[in-house]
Design goal:
The protein has 334 residues and is mainly β. Helices cover 7% and strands 50% of the residues. It folds into two domains: 181 residues, Methylamine Dehydrogenase, Chain H; 123 residues, YVTN repeat-like/Quinoprotein amine dehydrogenase (Methylamine Dehydrogenase, Chain H). Strands 1-28-27-26 form a four-stranded antiparallel sheet, with no helix packed on it. It is globular and about 50 Å long.
Length: 334
């Protein structure tokens, strides 16, 4: 009887793990039509578009596709984003009608339906972070400045505020209705409350000097961070960023003899329902279907040049951008 119970117990565990391991399936691969050095990716808030930024043919490259059909919607190859001609960061506005890309000297905005050039915003220094807030404010991180732009009646964005940070902004700024996450070179990640009427500065929720990568869900209940080489932490924001779970990103066999840069976790993402976590190391995506269970881990291998960035969309979508501009998509099985 004990043996039978034990067998049933382990069979149940195997069955559960099988469900987890088969949860996501590859649905689409979009190969680059030109030689591309891809640097950034964004999925629109509505979940209908995926866009990438980078460089091709010595010009800044911005492309975006329809998620459902995989059809290329817009393609921009421009020298208007600065002397290095890179699109360092891309972002969609809340209703998916505008895609923005930041470069070394300027930020460009395009209509997502027509591809029409809408506006150029000149900057004093290079920018590696651009984001839209839920209320359609445009935030650009450039050097030590985090500038906020509001859309006027003319349709163009005008600068409304610029706050000097303590050191250079070194990664993606995440902004929600309540909180903003600012990664700084010296101080690490800083989580602030958003500014509210009558206050000139939102209070600091938490400083996280060791954090290398981060993400925040749209509900703003949880955030995810990476410290060290492989330690992933999930934090409850409203409780001062208290850690509620820790995960460990494995080392695939391919990275043991690779260079130091290839061993690092290059991207980290939290799903829109804030229950799933994805991390990238070399050409492998580590996906936890439920971050509360360490046993929910699924590994997704991506052929090619190595994964640059990973992000979750809506309706169970997971998207990966490879260094050569290849876009891969997976869907969660219902």
């Amino acid at each position: 009887m004990i043996r039978t119970t034990t067998l049933l117990f382990f069979s149940s565990l195997f069955f559960i793990n099988s469900i987890f391991s088969m949860n996501y399936e590859h649905t689409r691969r979009i190969a680059p039509d030109v030689l591309t050095n891809a640097t950034s990716m964004a999925i629109s808030p509505k979940g209908d578009l995926v866009g990438i930024g980078g460089k091709a043919s010595d010009k800044a490259l911005v492309k975006w596709w329809d998620v459902k059909s995989g059809k290329l919607v817009g393609y921009v190859n421009t020298s208007r984003l600065g002397y290095l001609n890179y699109a360092n960061s891309v972002a969609f506005n809340p209703d998916s009608t505008i895609i923005a890309a930041s470069g070394c000297e300027s930020t460009g905005l395009w209509d997502t339906q027509t591809g029409q050039w809408l506006q150029r915003i000149a900057m004093d220094s290079d920018s590696h972070s651009i984001a839209f807030s839920p209320e359609n404010k445009l935030l650009i991180g450039m050097g030590m400045q985090l500038a906020t732009y509001a859309q006027e009646e003319s349709g163009e964005f005008a600068e409304k505020d610029s706050k000097k940070q303590f050191s250079y902004i070194r990664g993606h700024v995440r902004v929600g209705k309540k909180y903003i996450m600012i990664p700084l070179i010296r101080e690490g990640l800083q989580v602030n409350e958003r500014r509210v009427p009558g206050k000139t500065q939102g209070s600091i929720i938490r400083k996280m000097p060791e954090v290398k990568l981060h993400d925040m869900g749209p509900n703003e209940e949880y955030m995810v961070s990476l410290t060290g080489e492989s330690r992933i932490s999930i934090h409850e924001i409203e409780k001062g960023g208290a850690c509620v779970q820790q995960l460990r990103c494995p080392y695939p066999d391919e990275v043991f003899f690779a260079g130091e840069n290839e061993k690092e976790v290059s991207s980290l993402a939290l799903s829109r329902d804030e229950t799933k976590v994805a991390a990238v190391r070399a050409s492998t995506i580590y996906l936890w279907r439920d971050w509360m269970s360490r046993d929910s881990l699924q590994e997704l291998s991506v052929e090619g040049s190595g994964v640059r960035e990973v992000a979750f969309g809506s309706d169970g979508l997971l998207v990966a951008l490879s260094k050569d501009g290849t876009v891969d998509m997976w869907r969660e099985k219902k």
